[in-house]
Amino acid sequence: MGYSGQLLSKQDHYAKKGLEQGGKSLPAASAQSLDGYETQLQAEAQRLAAGDHADFSKKQSGKRKSLGEVKDTLSQTSVECETLIADRPLSETVSHTREQQRPLLVKLREDQLMREAELKTYRALNKITEKASYPESVMLPVLWLVPFILLETGVNAFFYENAQGLLGGAVVALTVSLVNLLIAFGLGAGFRYKNLSMPGWRSFGWSALVFAVVVAVYFNAIFSAYRSEYQLIVDPSDLAETGAAFKRALSVAGLVFLGHLPSGDFMSFVLFFIGLLLSAFAFYKGYGCDDRYPGHSRRDRRFAEATRKYDEAMEIVRLKVVGEVQRRLTRMGAAKTQLLQSKARLDQIKNSVPVEVGGLKASLTQLQRDFALVLNTYRQKNVSVRPVKAPDYFAETPDLIAQYASEDGGELMSQVDEAERQLDLYKDMYLARLNDGMRDLENQGRVEQGAALTKFVADITLEAQNNIDKGKLSMPVASASVGAPA
Q1: Are 54 and 384 in contact (CB under 8 A)?
Q2: Exposure of 121 by Cβ count < 10 A (0-12 exposed, 13-18 middle, 19+ buried)?
Q3: Is residue 402 predicted with pLDDT exceeding 60?
Q4: Whole-angstrom Cα distance, residue 287 to residue 292?
Q5: pLDDT > 90: what percent of the chain?
Q6: What is the end-to-end Cα distance of the chain in Å, rounded?
Q7: Residue 133 and residue 141: Cα distance in Å, rounded?
Q8: Nearest in space to 317 (alpha carbons), one of 201, 459, 175
């Protein structure tokens, strides 16, 4: 904290002491040095001056430290600039990065081309002109059956109700529902084979439709007849009795193809047609469980997976190039910023030194002035009452601040000027080159991510094609079943 008039607050105190000492003829007329009170005042003033100077020295030390940090930063920035400017061309780094990934990319591209050829061949042989259409999960179509199985189970449980209530027919109803819907669903999936070009598979598809109709009618006739027989069972837990009832249902179910319903009661009649409707729905869901061309979706999935893996690997290469460009740009930008910011830090140090030197001198001057005022007050009061002559030294006022006259901040300012010259040299050496380097790097980056990347991708494709041509990969076996869905 700088001097702020602390001595003036003691002026009255020293005035009284001057009167007291003067009345005692002290100090003696022959005294050659300050008396006790004068010495006390001088010591107090010197302490305050030393405090101001200590604060000033502390600030100067902080600035020297900051200046040292700026110099260290400039030195490090110079080394960084030299490294960046002398760094190997971006094209070499990118080429090295890409060559590291080449074996993997070629392998993935080979697999993609093989999968694509397999898919295209299958589509051509089966005259497929539309994109593959299939659910994301192979289990999704089957899961769609669950609510309808539960629905039919609930309906059938009602129809198979006996003396034991609804629960008594629940197991039978669930079995009937599973058999009815799952078989219809499977035959619906088989009906898709009619869309294939090979006569054998087309016949298989249409046979699935015929078989589905026959099975749906026959099975629902069995379930309808069994419902009537089940109502007559005394003990549904008796396997022999339920087995005999089922045999009787089988014996009459075939009559449905002769135009005779196997059961004459209304509830069995309703059960028969409900079962047919649900069978038809399950058949429809089975037909839509996957792409309408069997094998099309599997080949499309494999091609899509191969494409995804290849694209992800290629994206990694692309991102590595982008990362290298960004890394260099960031380092160049940081070096450039350091050079520009160092100027501001040096200016801050340089501008603050004269302010602090001026503050110190003003504070010390005020301190000397106040010291002289209080000291003269003490002496004047002393002289006004003393009966003898005052000492000769009363005519002199000690100079407390002469020892601090050399504090002008010149040494620090000289160091700042030297740092500024070094900074100007570095700016002349590097700023323009850094700006050119950043511009060139951005242009090179665009080239590497444009024409150079296109050429690299073409080289990968060509190498993959050559490997396939040379038989380095196992080609799909050509046979009469090439158009088959397997």
Answers
A1: no
A2: middle
A3: yes
A4: 7
A5: 50
A6: 92
A7: 13
A8: 459
How far is 332 from 434, CA to CA, in rounded Å?
6
pLDDT, tens only, 45-82: 999 999 999 999 999 999 999 999 999 999 999 999 99
CA-nearest of 118, 160, 303 to 245 is 160
* pLDDT higher than 60, residue 162: no
Say how far apart CA 91 and CA 83 lie, in whole Å.
Answer: 17
CA 321 to chain centre: 18
One-letter amino acid at 20 equals E
**pLDDT on residue 134:** 76
Q: Given this model, what pLDDT does residue 478 score?
A: 46
Residues 6+ apart with CB under 8 A from 394: 379, 382, 383
Task: Report residue 168 as tokens.
Answer: 């008594």
**Per DSSP, what are the bridge partners of residue 162?**
165
Q: Between 431 and 235, whose confidence is greater?
A: 431
Dihedral sign of CA atoms 445, 446, 451, 456 in order: positive
| Nearest one of 186, 203, 185 to 194, comparing CA atoms | 203
| Residue bearing the bigger pLDDT, 153 or 462 | 462
Q: Following DSSP, what letter does each residue of 117-140 receive, concatenated?
A: HHHHHHHHHTT--S-----SSTTH
CA 146 to chain centroid: 40
Q: Specify the DSSP class assigned to residue 204.
A: H
Q: Residue 454 is which amino acid?
A: T
CA distance 393 to 400: 16
- pLDDT tens-digit map of 134-149: 777 666 666 666 666 6
> pLDDT tens digit string along 72-86?
999 999 999 999 888
Contact 276, 216 (CB under 8 A): yes
> Within 10 A of 30 (CB to CB), how many other CB atoms are there?
8
- From the CA atom positions of the chain, what is the Rg in Å? 52
Q: Could you identify the residue written with the tokens 């589509």?
A: 123
Specify the pLDDT at position 12. 94
Question: Helices then strands (H, E): number in the chain?
Answer: 11, 0
What one-character DSSP code corresponds to residue 258? G
Mean pLDDT of the chain: 83
Contacts of 314 by beta carbon, 8 Å cutoff, 6+ apart? 105, 457
Q: Exposure of 306 by Cβ count < 10 A (0-12 exposed, 13-18 middle, 19+ buried)? A: buried
pLDDT the model gives residue 460: 94
